[in-house]
Amino acid sequence: MNSKHITETSKFLSFVLRHSPESIGLELDSEGWASIGDLQNGARQQGREVDSDLLLAVVDGNEKKRFSISDDGLRIRAVQGHSAPTVNLQHVEKKPPAVLYHGTATRFMKSILAQGLLPGARHHVHLSESRETAESVGKRYGSPVILELKADAMYSAGIKFYQADNGVWLTDAVPCEFLMEPK
Ligand code: HQG
């Protein structure tokens, strides 16, 4: 089991546990949980062996803590980032810090300044407490822009925030008026 194998399995898990469980005949409940046995069987049918050691290496070794395993050890889920329509994860509502960051790419800015931040295919807009995290998120799509959000003003206006188990902040959308000009 090398790091390349772990990364590749992590990408596979992100795909099936967030976006396309049906691609391996898997069902997610509304909280995003899948049976580990069913996941292993579905993967095996595609010639992919995901044994328990590999699964644990992916879950524990993941730098972003993307996945969690249930207390009874029988189920697994992605903690955020879903687009699968059957999932409606009930994240805990929480008061955000005064400022949150969102990393995006320069080419999206015109549309963002016109429409605010929208969740796209995922269920939420993803935000972070650190500028550095936002920068690495933005870099995935090209030349990055880091947006500062007036999270305290949004919260005072009644907009809800949630924090996933891995610390990622989530909200439904960010209207333009709460976006601060990139510095
Ligand atoms: C952009 C990764 C045009 C938005 C990361 C983003 C994150 C708009 C893209 C997590 C827009 C959606 C999520 C608008 C937003 N017009 N573009 N009005 N509003 N956008 O991948 O936040 O590695 O769904 O800026 O680390 O980039 O997968 O969201 O560029 O935490 O665990 O539309 O995914 O985590 O892209 O990334 P995404 P994201 P993982």
Predict the CATH topology of the largest domain.
ADP-ribosylation fold
Whole-number mean pLDDT? 95
Query: At the first level of CATH, what is the class of the largest domain?
Result: Alpha Beta
Bound molecules: ligand HQG
Give the CATH architecture of the largest domain.
Answer: Alpha-Beta Barrel
Total domains: 2
Supply the helix-strand structural class: alpha+beta
Radius of gyration (Å) = 18 Å
Number of strands: 10
Descriptive overview:
- The protein has 2 domains: 3-78, RNA 2'-phosphotransferase, Tpt1/KptA family, N-terminal domain (Arc Repressor Mutant, subunit A, Orthogonal Bundle), CATH 1.10.10.970; 99-180, ADP-ribosylation fold (Alpha-Beta Barrel), CATH 3.20.170.30.
- Helices cover 32% and strands 19% of the residues.
- The protein contains 6 helices and 10 strands, in the order αβααββββαβαβαβββ.
- A hairpin with a 5-residue loop joins β2 and β3.
- The relative contact order is 0.15.
- The site of ligand HQG has 19 residues, from β5 and α4.
The gist of it:
The protein has 6 helices and 10 strands, in the order H-E-H-H-E-E-E-E-H-E-H-E-H-E-E-E.
Which key features would you list for this structure?
ADP-ribosylation fold, 19% strand, alpha+beta, Arc Repressor Mutant, subunit A, binds ligand HQG, four-stranded antiparallel beta sheet, single chain, 183 residues, three-stranded antiparallel beta sheet
Ordered list of secondary-structure elements with their pairings:
Blueprint: H1 3-19, E1 34-35, H2 36-45, H3 52-61, E2 67-69, E3 75-78, E4 92-93, E5 99-105, H4 109-115, E6 125-127, H5 131-139, E7 144-150, H6 151-156, E8 162-163, E9 169-171, E10 179-180
Antiparallel strand pairs: 1-3, 2-3, 4-8, 5-7, 6-9, 7-10, 8-9
Helix pairs in contact: 1-3
Bound molecules: ligand HQG.
Ligand HQG binds at residues 14, 64, 66, 81, 104-105, 108, 111-112, 115, 117-118, 120-122, 126, 137, 141, 168.
